[in-house]
Amino acid sequence: MARTTKSLEESFESLEEILGKLEDEEISLEESFRLYQEGMKLLKKCNTAIDKVEKELVVLTEE
Fold it and tell me: Which tens digits make up the pLDDT trace of 6-43?
């Protein structure tokens, strides 16, 4: 079965690629907006994953 979600590391790599594309002076406004939206979705996913790991660590340290 194929994996449909990106790992945290893959998401960070995608964010770096998006940032690189956004720094290009030749990018259109429409494309920059699309990339911005994609980046924000990835950032939210990363924050959620990090929060989940932090909560798991708190539980482990309490035991």
Answer: 788 999 999 999 999 999 999 999 999 999 999 999 99
Sign of CA dihedral 34, 46, 12, 1: negative
pTM, two decimal places = 0.76
Sign (positive or negative) of CA dihedral 31, 42, 17, 4: negative
d(CA 36, CA 41): 9
How far apart are the C-alpha atoms of 32 and 38, rounded to whole Å?
10
Residues 6+ apart with CB under 8 A from 49: 8, 11
Give the containing element (helix H, strand E) for 39.
helix 29-62
Q: CA 39, CA 53: separation in Å to the nearest integer? A: 21
